[in-house]
Amino acid sequence: MSIFSKLHVLVMLSFLVAVQLIALAVTPAISATDNRVFEDPASISNPIIYVLLILIFTGVLLLAMRLKVEWLINAFILMSIAVTIFYVISAIMPAWLALLSTLVVMLLLHYYPEWYILDAFGILVCAGVASLLGVSMTVLPVIILLVVLAVYDAVSVYKTRHMVSLAEGAIKMKAPLLFVVPKSRDYSFRRRDEGSTLFGEGKERKDRGAYFLGMGDAIIPTILVVTASWSYPSGAILGLNLPAIGAMLGTYVGFLLLMSTGRDRPQAGLPFLNSGVILGFLVGCLAAGILPF
Asked: Where are the domains of the chain?
């Protein structure tokens, strides 16, 4: 096994750390704008709306895959990503510059979807999306959202398996929905088609060229980190309070537990990550003497 595959766990963990640190860094700028996903951050209907949007998005992609209309899938994914990028970037820069930046990113993703381009894009966009969602909801709706999505992820991976089909389709189409960690120095996501390893797939699959992690696994737990950072008084450690720090550490523990599970089949990431971030958040609240709700 090469050094690349030996280090894939630490590389993926570094992606999670980078997403959360950047999300926290841009949160003040996003908070200073009027850009919000939901009008009432405390509304319990917010997670319901968000989950419905995820179900619609997933349903459209699966239907398009069943009909074998890849051009429609690519167009739908790229359009969704473009809207997301513009919405996030416009929170921290003028609209014309956000539009230009979005165009440049989309051209790069379409014509040169190499693994390091996807990873850099994923870190920045995941951080922006998590920050935008984090300032759009208070703690209780976020925790409800994380619990519901953890259950949904488990069902969609272990029971219906439609999330596995979706991930495999995204890999085949080279859609910018995943983080990629190569197993070898000469790996190319853009040119090669020999296959890849989803987290949880058997180690004996020697024909696979890279490991993958869904960008949603980075976004969803980070939402609680961001929400905790502005919901309670600032702390002494880089301005972060204990609930936010606890949520961050809980995410990393959940990820390491995920990576220690059996690898004979794809594993659902959110049950581990969301449980970790919620428990870490609650421990942080306890340590700070803060009532979480």
From this structure: 3-288
